[in-house]
Amino acid sequence: MRAVRYARFGGPEVLHVAEVPVPEPGPGQVRVRVAASVVHPVDLMIRSGRFPAPLPTGLPYTPGWDVAGTVDAVGPSARTFPIGEQVIGFSPWLRTTTGAHAEFVVLDAAWLTSAPTSVPATGAATLPTNGLAAAQALDLLALPAGATVLVTGAAGQVGGFVLALARAAGLHATGLAGADDQAFVESLGAAFLPRSGDPAGTFDAVVDLAVIGASLLDLVRDGGGYVAASPPLRPEPVRGIRTFALEVLPDGARLGELVALVDSGDIPLRVAGVYPFAEAAAAHDRLAQGGVRGGVVLVP
After folding, report:
1. Residue 234's domain spans which residues?
2. Which CA distances in Å does 266 have to 88, 163, 166, 294?
3. Where does 90-240 have alpha helices with state H?
4. End-to-end distance of the chain based on CA atoms, in angstroms?
5. Are 181 and 277 within one domain?
6. Confidence of residue 196 (pLDDT cuts 50, 70, 90)
7. Taking residues 162-175, what's their average pLDDT?
8. CATH number where 39 lies
9. How far apart are the C-alpha atoms of 277 and 60, rounded to whole Å?
10. Structural domains in the chain (count)
11. pLDDT number for residue 157
C-alpha cells in the first residue's frame, strides 16, 4: 500500500509517498481503507524534530491521527463492524505511532464509530480528534445548563467544536478570537470577544486553547473550572478553581454522540483544503502558514 512517510526529521520536503506492507488487524482491531485523514499542528512539530518528549518507536514514521474510511477487515474479538461500513475515528499517534496517512490503517475497534451520513469523508475526517478534544474539555468541567464559559482560540478547530457543543448543552459561551472570526463565533450562538478586548465580569469556566495561561484564572469565579490545552500548561488551582489539562483520548462511543450532532446540524464541519498524498508537503506548508479555518485534509 502507499503511505506518506519520512525517514528523517526536517521540513516538509522530507515527506514522500512510500510502498509499505498492508497491516493486518489483531484481536479487537479493525482495518480501515482510508478515504480521508487530517494534518494537525502536532504532525508538523514531530516531523520537524521539535517534539519535546520521546516517542515509543523510531523513524521512519507515517503521520496522521484522524481517519474516515471503510471497514476492510475485522480481527478476532473485535466489536462488530460489517465489512464495508463507513467509519471514523483516530489513532492516538503519540502512543502508537500508527499513522492514518496511508491507504489502510489498523485501529482498535473501540476507537471507531459509524461515520456521519450527512457529510462526505473529507468533512467527516475533521471530527474525531478535535471534536473529542472539545467534548472531553467540557466533560472535565461538567458545567450545568446556563453556566458561562470563556473559550480562547474560539475560531480554531477545537475552539469551534467547543462553541458548538456548549450551545448544544445550553451553556452561555463567549469566544475570544480575531476580528475576522466574529461572524463564525456568533454563528455558533456565542458572544464574540476580540483578542484586543478586555473581558468583563467573571465566568464559571475557561477553556484556554490559545494558551494565554494562568492570568485567565482572574476571570474565573471562585470554585469554577479551567482547562489548559496540554498538561505542562495547567496552572495550580487557586480560590477553589478546578484546573485540568486536556489529553484527548480515542472513544468510539463518545464520538458516536458527536456524529449524531453533526447529522442533526448542531456541529458544523470545516474543510480548509484537500490534498492528495503526493502533495503532503504542500498540505504541511498550508497548515504552517497559520490562520487555517478548517481541516487540512489528505486523501489517497
Report:
1. 129-245
2. 18, 10, 10, 17
3. 93-96, 121-124, 128-141, 157-168, 182-187
4. 10
5. no
6. confident
7. 98
8. 3.90.180.10
9. 17
10. 2
11. 93
Nearest alpha-carbon partner for 288 in 48, 8, 37, 122 = 48
Which is it for strands 66-74 and 86-90: parallel, antiparallel or unpaired? antiparallel
Does residue 179 form part of some domain? yes
Sequence-distant (≥ 6) Cβ neighbours of residue 293 within 8 angstroms: 155, 181, 184, 270, 272
Q: Is the pLDDT of residue 216 over 90?
A: yes
Q: What is the CATH number of the domain that holds 152?
A: 3.40.50.720
Using CA atoms, how far apart are residues 7 and 25, in angstroms rounded to an integer?
Answer: 25
Same domain, yes or no: 133 and 123: no
Whether residue 181 is found in the same domain as residue 87: no
Whether the predicted pLDDT of 77 surpasses 90? no
Q: How far apart are CA 173 and CA 207, in angstroms?
A: 10
Q: Do 59 and 91 reside in the same domain of the chain? A: yes
The set of residues, in sequence order, having a beta carbon less than 8 Å from that of 125 and lying 6+ positions away, is 35, 36, 37, 38, 66, 67, 68, 88, 295, 297
Q: Given the DSSP bridges, would you call strands 220-228 and 242-245 parallel, antiparallel or unpaired?
A: parallel
User: Alpha-carbon distance 222 to 240, whole Å?
Assistant: 6
Domain match, 208 and 274 both: no
Q: What are the b/e assignments for 186-222, b being 16+ CB within 10 Å?
A: eebebebbeeeeeeeeebbbbbbbbebeeebbebbbe
120 and 146 part of one domain: no
Helical spans, DSSP H, in 33-169: 41-47, 93-96, 121-124, 128-141, 157-168
User: How far, in Å, CA of 23 to CA of 34, rounded?
Assistant: 13
The whole-angstrom separation of Cα 252 and Cα 231 is 23
